[in-house]
Target: DUF4149 domain-containing protein
Amino acid sequence: MALARPERWALSAALVGAPAAYLLAQIIFAMVPREKSLFATLDAHSSTWLISHLLLATWLVLLIPSLAAIWQLLGRGGWGFRVVGGALTAVGIVVNGLITGVDFVLGAIAPMGRSLATSVHKRVSESVLAPLDSWDLALSLGLLVLAIGLYRTRNAPQ
Model:
């Protein structure tokens, strides 16, 4: 099924915009000087933290149409790559979205008081982030499987 011109432009923009947003978020996040504690860093650099995490959220949103574009490119010959890579990538998007959401919450409660923020951080780290950390790799593995699928089905530049 061929895509109409506006759909191709939108998917192309997502394929370029997703990695660009991720790269920019990582560059901005790397520029944040690290303080003695996470909350000292949040207090001193909350706007940079927010911008970085907004870009991470943008990256995750743009990954959804990017995944659809790659899914379309794989076609019928790459059925296994589509299913495995697509499932891993989808799980990775959800997990990274949850982690980014937790980071937004931590950034929002940091100004409310260090004891509250530390308490919430401890509870969230134990109950939410610890189980998610092992699934964080799913996104990278899913994208790798999709890239291998594009190569194997000869839909990627060789």
The chain has a mean pLDDT of 81. The two ends are 23 Å apart (CA to CA).
